[in-house]
Design brief:
By secondary structure, this protein is mainly alpha-helical. It has one domain. α2 crosses α4. The longest helix has 13 residues. It is elongated, with a radius of gyration of 12 Å. The two termini are 14 Å apart.
């Protein structure tokens, strides 16, 4: 799994993470995805950018 993260450019990984967590209707999210969505909204949409940078650096 680590080799896959290093093989892709950082921007592609960030975009994929953001698309995954923003797809769908927020009112239907439950569990961890709902919590992460609320945190992302509270941080102005920057949470998954920082997560993606952290995963690839």
């Amino acid at each position: 799994a680590v080799d896959v993260l290093y093989a892709l450019p950082t921007l592609v990984v960030i975009i994929l993470i953001m698309v995954y967590f923003r797809a769908g209707q927020p009112e239907q999210f439950t569990g961890l995805k709902a919590l992460l969505y609320r945190w992302d909204s509270a941080l102005g949409g920057m949470l998954f950018i920082f997560v993606g940078i952290g995963l690839t650096s």
